[in-house]
Specification:
Blueprint: E1 2-5, H1 6-13, H2 17-25, E2 31-33, E3 39-42, H3 43-53, E4 69-80, E5 84-91, E6 94-101, H4 102-108, E7 115-120, E8 143-144
């Protein structure tokens, strides 16, 4: 299993190291130790915490859809020519860019500051992981199964 040091878990959760320690003390996260005695949190436990705390703004349209990947945010840029436009949204910590017709941009009234929902329905999603590297003292790289 993948395990993360307290500082790594804090970065992934978007909180301070002290907050992670408080959650461990309160039983909200479980911890263990790695092979050199450092406190670690299981990746699966972090995933549960992230899923439970995902509280972005709700979809203002509230309609039924088979698309599960919906990102609500604000339009931060619109670049248009006569036919096509590039629309950038900031959805929490995520930047989402969409290419669409300039006609659609006009019909939707998209402009910087507009509230919008990016709906992603794709047949392919690429998932990447960081390269496996040897941990050096003082570095913050996740380990798998306690191996260094």
């Amino acid at each position: 299993m993948t395990r993360f040091r307290i500082s790594e878990a804090a970065v992934l959760l978007g909180v301070s190291d002290d907050t992670v320690r408080r959650w461990i003390d309160a039983g909200e996260l479980t911890s263990g130790t790695d092979d050199v005695g450092r406190a670690v949190v299981e990746g699966a436990d972090l995933a549960r915490r992230l899923t439970a705390s995902a509280n972005g703004p709700g979809d203002p349209l509230e309609r039924g859809s088979s698309a599960r990947n919906r990102f609500v945010g604000l339009v931060t840029a619109v670049t248009s020519d006569t036919v096509m436009s590039e629309v950038e949204l900031q959805c929490g910590p995520h930047r989402v860019v969409s290419l669409m017709s300039t006609e659609a941009v006009r019909e939707l009234g998209l402009e910087v500051g507009s509230l919008a929902t990016a709906v992603v329905k794709a047949t392919m999603v690429i998932v990447e992981t960081p390269p496996a590297v040897e941990r050096k003292p003082g570095t913050a790289t996740a380990t798998k199964g306690g191996r260094r």
